[in-house]
Amino acid sequence: MPSATAPAVRKAPAARPAASPLGALLTVANAPRIGPQPKSLDKALACAQHWVQLSDARRPDAMWLEAGMMMQRMVPRAEWVRYIRKIRLDRGVLVGREWFEMARVRDPVGLPAGDYLNVIFLAHYAKAVMFETVSLAPGTEGWLPVGYVIRPVQREISFVQ
């Protein structure tokens, strides 16, 4: 009988062979993934930041070329270039931008069913403060930009006088 002060020692269970090859696969499939994770939220933010920086650099052609095939099919290149140039003319020079929010979007209207991610920035332009939303879709190698919408920030209205 062990003494009251000595810790109890348990024998580790013996490793059992998997009952079937499928069981072995299930065990491996449930193991934590180690290594690069191209669809992480950090990668999504980096992808969105890169894409808006292309807009800042007045490179709408590069934005279109780096976009997912889905966007390229929906928006002709010349139309995209006109859209980005108009945004820049209407808003003026970028003064600063900060990451604001990420939001998961499931089955958005007008796009193939699936999970998407919106990365939203608060952008301060010379003529306005705007929300910039970069929509991302998961691709085989990571996140792919599939949309860019810019809209004004609505100021709160004070009813107290």
How would you sum up this structure, described in words?
The protein has 161 residues and is an alpha+beta fold. The protein is 33% helix and 27% strand. It contains 5 helices and 4 strands; from the N terminus they run H-H-H-H-H-E-E-E-E. The chain has helices spanning 21-29, 41-56, 60-66, 69-74, 77-91, and strands at residues 94-106, 115-125, 129-138, 143-152. The chain has a 4-stranded antiparallel β-sheet. A hairpin with an 8-residue loop joins strand 1 (94-106) and strand 2 (115-125). The longest helix has 16 residues, at 41-56.
Task: List strands and helices in order, with pairings.
Layout: H1 21-29, H2 41-56, H3 60-66, H4 69-74, H5 77-91, E1 94-106, E2 115-125, E3 129-138, E4 143-152
Helix pairs in contact: 2-3, 3-5
Number of domains: 1
Per the CATH scheme, the topology name is Nuclear Transport Factor 2, Chain: A
Give, in order, the helices and strands: HHHHHEEEE
The DSSP helix count reads 5
In terms of DSSP E residues, the strand content is 25-35%
* CATH-scheme architecture: Roll
Question: On the 0-100 scale, what is the average pLDDT?
Answer: 81
Shape: globular
| CATH top level assignment | Alpha Beta
Q: Please provide the count of β strands.
A: 4
